Amino acid sequence: MDASRLAVVVAAYGEEDRIGATVQALHEAFPGSLVVVADDGSPDGTAAAAERAGAQVVRLARRTGKGGAASQAAEVALASAPELVLLCDADLGASAARLEPLLRAVESGDGDLAVAVFARRVGGGFGIAVGFAHWAIERLTGLDLRAPISGQRAMRASVLEAVTPFAPRFGMEIGMTVDAARAGMRVVEVEVDLEHRATGRTLRGFVHRFRQLRDFTLVYASRRLRRA
């Protein structure tokens, strides 16, 4: 693929130790692409690390949550008139270089929105939040997804325009999937060998998943009301 036609959107918060490797891997895998990082009011050097690695950084003065930050980065990305857009989590590190299968799935016409399924599961809790996300998407669209909240996604620019602005905070992926499916777009999953920072069964991890579940519930309710 011609990477000059590609824009990459990354929302980051407190990822000073990993964002540089993520951006570097993206540039190495997709030379000539535009990488836009929205720093969601990080208290550390996330923004500076992303800039050093060659990303265009959107600095948010205060934390808005993943969906809000990614929406602002998406707006900047779309202004560059790309053909393809890749969404990528900030903590993938060097494994971000392995995201090309998602783009190939879109270019070949296999799907309009390609979602990465991690080939290897790392960390995680008891599956309550992910289970709810799976149920919510299936209930609203009929889709049976293995990775309902995966943040690694590829699409054409026209699809991104149709699903933005994203749902707030951690509701971003559920809202995006539901909105795409309801618009008649085909959602496909692609297994990719990726690595990320696992939260695990720690207090911090459980707090994170509680916040996810809260946002999942809110986005489910909002999309259900839209259909009604």
Feature tags:
about 230 residues, alpha/beta, Spore Coat Polysaccharide Biosynthesis Protein SpsA, Chain A, seven-stranded mixed sheet, 8 helices, 7 strands, about 15% strand, globular
Question: Would you mind describing this structure in some detail?
Answer:
With 228 residues, this protein is an alpha/beta fold. It has a single domain, classed as Spore Coat Polysaccharide Biosynthesis Protein SpsA, Chain A (Alpha-Beta Complex), CATH 3.90.550. It has eight helices and seven strands; from the N terminus they run E-H-E-H-E-H-E-H-E-H-E-H-H-E-H. Strand 1, helix 1 (19-29) and strand 2 (34-39) form a beta-alpha-beta unit. The longest helix is centred in the last third of the chain and has 25 residues, at 203-227. It is globular and about 45 Å long. The N and C termini lie far apart (41 Å).
Order of secondary-structure elements: EHEHEHEHEHEHHEH
From the 3D structure, determine the CATH topology: Spore Coat Polysaccharide Biosynthesis Protein SpsA, Chain A
Percent of residues in helices: 40-55%
User: How many β strands by DSSP?
Assistant: 7
Q: Total number of helical segments?
A: 8
Taking all Cα atoms into account, the compactness measure Rg is 16 Å
| Alpha-carbon distance between the two ends | 41 Å
Give average pLDDT, whole number: 92
Let me know the CATH homologous superfamily. Spore Coat Polysaccharide Biosynthesis Protein SpsA, Chain A
Looking across the biggest beta sheet, what order are the strands in? 3-2-1-4-6-5-7
Number of domains: 1
- CATH top level is Alpha Beta
How does CATH name the architecture? Alpha-Beta Complex
**Largest sheet geometry:** 7 strands, mixed
Unreliable parts? none
- Which shape, going by the Cα principal axes? globular
Bin the strand percentage. Answer: 15-25%
